[in-house]
Amino acid sequence: MDRSNHTVTEFILVGFTTDPLMQLILFVVFLGVYSVTVMGNIILIVLICKDSQLHTPMYFFIGNLAFLDFWYSSVYTPKILVTCISENKSISLAGCVAQFFFSAGLGYSECYLLATMAYDRYVAISNPLLYAQVMSNRLCIYLLICSYTGGFINAIILTSNTFTLDFCGDNVIDDFFCDVPPLVKLACDVKESYQAVLYFLLTSNVITPIVLIVASYLFIIAAILRIRSTQGRLKAFSTCSSHLISVTLYYGSILYIYSRPSSSYSLDRDKMVSTFYTVVFPMLNPMIYSLRNKDVKGALKKLLKLTPPEV
């Protein structure tokens, strides 16, 4: 392959397969997943906005998580659907930069938001009587703004450093979206300074939030152990179970993709993991936070006029 340096004006997204039948099947699958994602997250946001019983700090953050998941999935899935049914697999350089930037910004913001939600659970369990006072509207909005600000500032750093790399040879991205591993594979030479930027971003956006989450849960466990009744302990832990599942799935897949040296990237294997946290995970989150949640299910019944009138 010719590895000479040249200006790239567009990229070609290989996607998952070149088989027309499989592309059609994948189109139907991704369309179904995206439809459920959009519907699930919008319904969750509407329920939290409309039902006064859900106007608490916990549901404020869950609603914003649903908002993030809706837009996060929308960064990828529409282009995946087009790639599956269209002969034109190209994405312009500007389109690739935009997709890369917004995916990084929303993804990093979600990392910080999940850490914020862990702190919220700690306050709720350790100081239930002072919960509403400590987690005031002002503090909740401040933490949310910090999550978005930190996420998008780091996205600017990652995007600017990635697209100043020199790309060689062909412009074919062996993936379904513009991401670090496939773009690094196209680069002529990945300098140690770029690898250092990746590790810095991994530390600030993934490792640091994980440390905060682990610390919060250590304090949560200590608070739960101080509860005398077994039923009280189970009830307290149940308020954290959805968040724990969400954190494990999201951070697990991200760490797998981005914590390795660029030389060890395996694009075929990474595609499957990337699909999970970019497409499947945003669909699962509304289910994780609502299926076992009596408050959300009650709000849905009221919205659908299924609750019997009070006598």
Question: How is this structure best described in words?
Answer:
This protein is an all-alpha fold and 311 residues long. The protein has 10 helices and 3 strands. Strands 2-1-3 form a 3-stranded mixed β-sheet. The radius of gyration is 21 Å and the shape is globular. The model has no long low-confidence stretch (mean pLDDT 85).
Main beta sheet: 3 strands, mixed
- Percentage of residues in helical conformation: over 70%
Number of continuous helical runs:
10
Radius of gyration: 21 Å
Decide which structural class fits the backbone. mainly alpha
What is the H-and-E element order? EHHEHHHEHHHHH
Annotation keywords:
311 residues, mainly alpha, three-stranded mixed beta sheet, 10 helices, 3 strands, globular
Summarize the structure.
The chain is built from 10 helices and 3 strands. By secondary structure, the protein is an all-alpha fold.
Write the layout of secondary structure elements.
Elements lengths: L9 E4 L6 H31 L6 H29 L4 E3 H34 L4 H4 L2 H26 L9 E2 L6 H7 L5 H34 L4 H29 L8 H24 L3 H10 L8
Parallel strand pairs: 1-3
Antiparallel strand pairs: 1-2
